[in-house]
Amino acid sequence: MSVRTQSNGIKWEELSTYLSADVVVCGGGSAGVFAAVAAAREGAKVLLVESQGGLGGTAVNGLVIPYMTVRIPGEPRCSYLHKELDKRVEEYHKEKYVVNSCDPMVFGIILEQMCTESKVQLLFHSTVCGAQVQEGRISAIAVACKDGIRKIEGKMFIDCTGDASLAVLAGAGYEQGHPKTGVNQPMSLRYMVDGVDMEAFKDFLDTYNDPASATSGRNGGNMYAAVWNKTEGALKPLFREAIANGDLTEQDMAYWQMFTTPGRENGIAFNNPEFFDLTDACDPLQLTEVQVRGKAFILRQLNFYKKYFKGFDNAYISNIAPMVGIRESRRIHAKYDLTGMDLLGQKKFSGCISQCNYPVDVHGGADLFQDDLPEGDPEKPWYEIPYDCLVSADLDNLLAAGRCIGADFIAQSSIRIQICCHSMGEAAGIAAAMCLDKKLQPGQLTGEEVSGRMKERGAEFVQE
Ligand SMILES: Cc1cc2nc3c(=O)[nH]c(=O)nc-3n(C[C@H](O)[C@H](O)[C@H](O)COP(=O)(O)OP(=O)(O)OC[C@H]3O[C@@H](n4cnc5c(N)ncnc54)[C@H](O)[C@@H]3O)c2cc1C
Q1: What does the alpha-carbon distance between residue 74 and residue 379 come to, in Å, rounded to a whole number?
Q2: CA of 403 relative to ligand 1 center, distance in Å
Q3: Which CATH number fits domain 3-179+329-457: 3.50.50.60, 2.30.30.100, 3.40.50.40, 1.10.3210.10?
Q4: Does the global pTM surpass 0.85?
């Protein structure tokens, strides 16, 4: 039996098995949680390995709220578990519920409850750092824990690390970044500020009153403001003044965006700073720099709000994301890799596992399209993600879900939204359990079988 050790000298023969499961899910973000819960609800014994100290990944530890809508009339929920999540979030926030948004701290707790109630075994503070591959299958993974390397065995593996870490450690092929330059999307460090006098701040935004770039929400909708390099926003002159006075830098203005935070009466969440010069999420030095430089930006920005906005006199930084905001890094080679042209042409697939019409969203993305662009589908204005995008082209018992599935750079910029990650995770979890039940490999299942089971469970798709 051939044994390939892809993990930089791990001595597998010296490791005893620490834990084992039918389905091992690597990464507990939006996709991983849904994969784990879905597989467990189908009767599989599931272990979820997560390097952070809690679930939610980018959504929770990266402080990324809100989750985008799919922008299809009727907002179909292609994941039955997402419908359950909606209910749990609504139940928590009650009359303060804002559609598609939740206090990220509570969101993390809800995700953990969904896992524990479904008997998913959780393993935190453990980073997947190696994979043992035997005859084209992953037989075990190595995880770096406090006291060293531990071995975990499984029958089916789902890579939900966002960075395709398991696939890459197992020697599978992958793509990274823009097809011409290899450069990834910019990384961000999100934070939250509390203690804001919201009435004073709303009055301040009302003096600008531009629905696209500065709105208090008093006339309907949410409070929102944004400034970035490419567009003239209502608040931009204020940013320019602060730059001229030495209170901000040009980089502070590269991408700045704020939202209200549901459940936090006096809180604002910020989708910045964003680093166009720090893009490689697999380089720990760059990740460190996002954190260190990012925190200096955050403090400078708080001081800017106090001096130039109204309502921030007693404001303070309440959260800085422990996890760097990574939009895109590595993507697996799948049985089918979704393309930007599929997206723009709003291509349909039999047995799709997710439907979406969120646009191409490449930050700072110039030179994306040189080819003739396909026309969309005016009758059915959405694209679909086929199950085959989750199936590894290289390893028999490996699925992926979330932002690292088989998709090109352009397609990934849309499918990465959390609601798609939820349905991808659910599909991968159901597929893994089905494979065990039917003694098949993921590549032998059809999308119809997987989406059929999702629908039986309550997932809703727009009529094809
Ligand atoms: C700044 C920013 C703003 C965004 N804004 C929005 C928005 O407004 N709405 C929206 O819907 N989407 C938004 N997105 C996109 C969306 O949040 C992400 O694409 C999505 O959450 C990714 O989910 P995931 O499960 O694929 O990956 P992640 O959430 O990144 O989860 C991966 C998990 O795997 C763990 N992990 C990684 N490597 C290992 C390892 N080796 N071993 C063990 N565990 C590991 C990580 O700790 C993490 O918990 C945004 C993204 C960013 C970065």
Answers
A1: 15
A2: 7
A3: 3.50.50.60
A4: yes
